[in-house]
Amino acid sequence: MTVFEGFFTAASSLRVAIVVARFNDLVTGKLLSGCLDSLTRHGIDVSPTSSQLDVAWVPGCFEIPLVAQRLAASGRYQVVITLGAVIRGDTPHFDVVVNEVSKGVAAVARDTGVPVIFGVLTTDTLQQALERAGIKANLGWSYGLQAIEMGSLMAAMPA
Ligand code: INI
């Protein structure tokens, strides 16, 4: 029997791409900060000169899947992290944006074989989003951990 697991100590060998939405950047900027802190403290170079990390900004969550697809298909990264915030109060097309980004991100991972972390908050209010982006916890930090685990897990598995 083989047990496959990801290891957080494997982070230094990973190349990571982050796609982050500018919409609700009060929230997404905090998710990005938390995520970078998590990656840094697991040994990933997040400095401006890093060859281990690239960050792509998109207008909103609707655009995340297209850019995540380009990055994942490039073969340069072991894992892609997506960060965004869709807040119900802001828009009557909340459901459209949420459906597109969630299904799109899942499809990118399946189509490319590269793990894509779903770091998109979907909340009813800005307050709830902020609570998950640093006021109570910063889920960006968890998304960084999940990326390291998935990147290392997929590297350990048969192709
Ligand atoms: N984009 C988001 O990331 N979050 C939202 O809450 C949101 N709302 O509320 O509409 C949102 N809309 C923009 C959308 O993602 C696209 O950028 C836009 O429609 C252009 O394609």
Structural class: alpha/beta
Ligands bound to this protein structure: 5-nitro-6-ribityl-amino-2,4(1H,3H)-pyrimidinedione
CATH domain topology: Rossmann fold
The whole-number mean of residue pLDDT values reads 95
CATH homologous superfamily (4th level) name: Lumazine/riboflavin synthase
- What is the beta-strand fraction? 15-25%
How many distinct domains? 1
List key phrases describing it.
about 160 residues, alpha/beta, Rossmann fold, 4 strands, binds 5-nitro-6-ribityl-amino-2,4(1H,3H)-pyrimidinedione
Brief account:
With 159 residues, the protein is of the alpha/beta class.
Characterization of this structure:
This protein has helices spanning 25-40, 64-73, 94-112, 126-131, 139-156; strands at residues 16-21, 53-58, 79-87, 116-123. The two termini are 18 Å apart. It has one domain (17-152): Rossmann fold. The chain has a 4-stranded parallel sheet, sandwiched between helices. The protein is α/β, with parallel strands linked by helices and 159 residues long. Bound molecules: 5-nitro-6-ribityl-amino-2,4(1H,3H)-pyrimidinedione. Residues 21, 23-24, 59-63, 84-87, 90-91, 97 line the site of 5-nitro-6-ribityl-amino-2,4(1H,3H)-pyrimidinedione.
Per-chain topology:
Elements (H helix, E strand, L loop, with lengths): L15 E6 L3 H16 L12 E6 L5 H10 L5 E9 L6 H19 L3 E8 L2 H6 L7 H18 L3
The site of 5-nitro-6-ribityl-amino-2,4(1H,3H)-pyrimidinedione (INI) has 15 residues, from strand 3.
